Amino acid sequence: MYHIKEIAKLIKGEIKGNDNLSFLRLSPFFHAKENEVTFAADEKMLKNIDKCNAGAIIVPFMEGLPDNRTYITVKSNPRELMPILLNYFKPKIQPFLKQKEDTATVDDTATVSPVNTYIGHNVRIGRNVVIYPNVSIFEGTVIEDNCIIYSNVTIREFTKIGKGSIIQPGAVIGSDGFGFVKVNGNNVKIEQIGNVIIEEEVEVGANTCIDRGTIGDTIIKKGTKIDNLVHIAHNDIIGENCFIVAQTGISGSVEVGNNTTLAGQVGVAGHLKIGNNVVIAARSGVTNDVPDGSKMSGFPLREHMEDLRVKMSMGKVPELVKKFKKMEKELEKLKG
């Protein structure tokens, strides 16, 4: 547990409200619970403080904060304090002592290769799981029944993998997200203290990377299939029964609905919502929210049939330019 007085002292803040609270962890603003602390770093959060359920909120010093809440007020932007806060709340990892740590639990029906496989502290491996050589499974990871983990996979600490999931060779689950903040002109790393949750019957392709959440979790929901060489960034939520095809890159904090397909080499900008039953064609760039049932393509992203018409028209441009130049010459002759 983390006491509010310790947190306030760490960030040189002032407590307004109950100064005898303790918290389990730091959580995202819109998902925080009463036994968690959060921070409001921008106008959108500050306007929605009434909707936040956190036990305490770290806010910049300001007037007119809603009553009957507990705050830690700070003079600087709370976002600039993120490196300090995340380092403080980051779980402490136990040292690597042996190939299979004593607190790891492996079901008797599981098949775990003894060749260069590491199983960390408090790892739990379920029934009929198959783990190939050269796999690293870090502390606190849970792998449920009937999963297959192929060679050269790395599963970082506190990851959860649901029943019947398959992780293809070379995938990295739970790597640090690309999180940095400018402080006095310098790039300062933001610790990534969230986790990855992979639900049941998910398949993750070879050399795909799924980053852990910065605060909160990156979630891949039931039945989704992810191709090779895909990047899923921190705090993304991918819905049920989706297809994410090769070389797609999804920036941080994106929500993808159920039964949605992102074809090969699609790029998605951060903090967007893509609806249910959406199809986005290959090599498209997504820079705005996409509503349910859309079929989209291109960059800028358009309705698919419209994008095809635009592309067909572009093919006629060289001929149109020739005709225009010819008309210009004829017009000059008429003027002469």
Could you characterize the architecture of this molecule?
The protein is flat and about 90 Å long. It folds into two domains: 2-89, 3-Layer(aba) Sandwich (Udp-n-acetylmuramoylalanyl-d-glutamate--2,6- Diaminopimelate Ligase, Chain: A, domain 1), CATH 3.40.1390; 105-306, UDP N-Acetylglucosamine Acyltransferase, domain 1 (3 Solenoid), CATH 2.160.10. The chain has an eleven-stranded mixed sheet, covered by helices on one side. A nine-stranded parallel sheet has the order 8-11-14-17-22-25-28-31-34, with no helix packed on it. Strands 10-13-16-19-24-27-30-33-36 form a nine-stranded parallel sheet, with no helix packed on it. The model has no long low-confidence stretch (mean pLDDT 94). The protein is built from five helices and 38 strands. The N and C termini lie far apart (89 Å). It is α/β, with parallel strands linked by helices. 15% of the residues lie in helices and 29% in strands.
